[in-house]
């Protein structure tokens, strides 16, 4: 434990894990003024800037690897962020956009805290599917804010929606609708007055611009906060009047691609471990986005004819509408036109290791799982999932196949994007 005396205006950068207790005076952190006897924490490997609003004394408990260093006011942007958003009405939907590692999640915590301090009911939605702080990777997750926080990770997801992937490039139209669904739920079920949305860092190419603008059109946010390095967000925010543009903090921790991958893999393990093996009937709990057991199974004779047509042994085949889904003894996915049908050729064991979302009747996530095997004759799927999901298995109404393949240690080994060509949305 360390006691530190701060002069009015002093700024310190703290890297966690750490706990700060105000013994006297007032300390500003993440949009909140903490007074005598109040405390806050800085999570491991996270950074936080604090400022003394008067002569103050703080008690510090620094964990392994933690540090606290004094910084000059011009080295940080705390004052500018505070000045630019101090008078913003926090009611409605606040949408935060920006590239990766520009402080979006910190700003989300700050805006949420400010709304809470004014007595509003607040929800936070984390729509960063690759680096989600509230819930599992691959999800849009949401939680109510009932106390001040310094980091979004101090909240636990109350509701999550499985978006199948760790990036939104290929699934963004569905992402728009599912983020809107989360907003509607927060308003209608929770009765919140402020909704703060943290978004992913995909902003630079044409598809990214189309996604973000479509999201703005769909949500009609009362406030757009753009954290901009230069003018990279101009194509997204052009034409909108309710925009506040902020500079990024100069000392935000930049994570490498490998750091982000490790963070996700730890997330999979956290939400699935310790795994239990469940055998689920695909008649009672169908695949949400692949109707292979909802159609008519082809007879042996028709399968043999199909084998000749597609040039590979067909192990099982199901007709659903104008499509035939054929499980073939092959390593490749393909789409063929046979007669008047479109034939979807699924490689045998295509399902092995796929991340799946076990969804309830409203389409919210009950839990993540990893698909081990589909037994076609028994019409069952074996899934590794958490013991919590096992306890709540009665809530699970369908299994949504994801676009990420994991190994037995929850390491990402492949993006299974072929599924997008054939899935039922």
Automatic annotation (TrEMBL):
Superkingdom, taxonomy of origin: Archaea
Domain Clp1 P-loop: 98-272
Protein name: polynucleotide 5'-hydroxyl-kinase
Free-text function comment from the UniProt entry: Polynucleotide kinase that can phosphorylate the 5'-hydroxyl groups of both single-stranded RNA (ssRNA) and single-stranded DNA (ssDNA). Exhibits a strong preference for ssRNA.
Any one Gene Ontology BP term: RNA processing
Tagged with keyword Transferase: yes
Gene3D superfamilies: P-loop containing nucleotide triphosphate hydrolases
EC numbers, comma separated: 2.7.1.78
Cofactor: a divalent metal cation
Keywords, ordered alphabetically: ATP-binding, Kinase, Nucleotide-binding, Transferase
UniProt source species: Pyrobaculum neutrophilum (strain DSM 2338 / JCM 9278 / NBRC 100436 / V24Sta)
InterPro entries: Clp1/Grc3, CLP1_P, P-loop_NTPase
Enzyme class: transferase
GO molecular function list: ATP binding; ATP-dependent polynucleotide 5'-hydroxyl-kinase activity
Reactions performed catalytically: a 5'-end dephospho-2'-deoxyribonucleoside-DNA + ATP = a 5'-end 5'-phospho-2'-deoxyribonucleoside-DNA + ADP + H(+); a 5'-end dephospho-ribonucleoside-RNA + ATP = a 5'-end 5'-phospho-ribonucleoside-RNA + ADP + H(+)
């Amino acid at each position: 434990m360390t006691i530190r005396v701060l002069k009015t205006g002093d700024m310190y950068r703290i890297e966690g894990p750490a706990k700060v207790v105000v013994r006297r005076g007032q300390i500003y952190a993440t949009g909140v003024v903490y007074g005598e006897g109040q405390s806050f924490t800085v999570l491991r490997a996270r950074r936080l800037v604090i400022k003394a609003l008067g002569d103050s004394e703080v008690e510090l408990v620094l964990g392994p690897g933690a540090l606290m260093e004094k910084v000059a006011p011009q080295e940080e942007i705390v004052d500018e962020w505070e000045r630019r958003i101090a008078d913003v009405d926090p009611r409605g939907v606040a949408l935060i956009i920006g590239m990766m590692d520009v402080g979006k999640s910190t700003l989300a915590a700050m805006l949420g805290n400010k709304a809470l301090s004014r007595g509003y009911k607040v929800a936070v939605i984390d729509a960063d599917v690759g680096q989600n702080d509230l819930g599992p990777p691959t999800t849009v997750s949401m939680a109510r804010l009932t106390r001040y926080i310094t980091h979004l990770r101090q909240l636990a997801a109350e509701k999550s929606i499985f978006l199948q992937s760790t990036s939104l490039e290929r699934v963004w139209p569905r992402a728009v609708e599912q983020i809107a669904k989360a907003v509607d739920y927060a308003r209608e079920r929770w009765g919140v007055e402020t909704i703060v949305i943290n978004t992913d860092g995909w902003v630079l190419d044409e598809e990214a611009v189309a996604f973000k603008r479509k999201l703005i059109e769909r949500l009609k946010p009362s406030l757009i906060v753009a954290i901009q390095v230069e003018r990279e967000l101009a194509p997204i925010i052009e034409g909108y009047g309710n925009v506040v543009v902020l500079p990024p903090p100069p000392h935000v921790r930049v994570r490498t691609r490998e750091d982000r991958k490790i963070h996700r893999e730890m997330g999979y393990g956290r939400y699935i471990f310790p795994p239990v093996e469940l055998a689920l009937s695909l008649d009672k709990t169908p695949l949400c986005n692949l109707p292979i057991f909802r159609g008519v199974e082809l007879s042996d004779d028709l399968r043999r004819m199909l084998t000749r047509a597609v040039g590979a042994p067909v192990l099982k085949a199901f007709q659903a509408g104008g499509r035939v889904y054929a499980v073939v003894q092959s390593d490749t996915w393909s789409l063929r036109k046979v007669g008047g049908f479109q034939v979807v050729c699924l490689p045998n064991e295509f399902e092995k290791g796929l991340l799946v979302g076990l969804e309830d009747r409203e389409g919210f996530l009950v839990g993540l799982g990893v698909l081990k095997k589909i037994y076609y004759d028994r019409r069952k799927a074996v899934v590794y999932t958490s013991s919590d999901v096992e306890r709540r298995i009665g809530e699970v109404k369908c299994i949504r196949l994801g676009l990420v393949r994991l190994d037995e240690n929850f390491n990402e080994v492949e993006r299974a994007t072929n599924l997008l060509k054939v899935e039922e949305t």
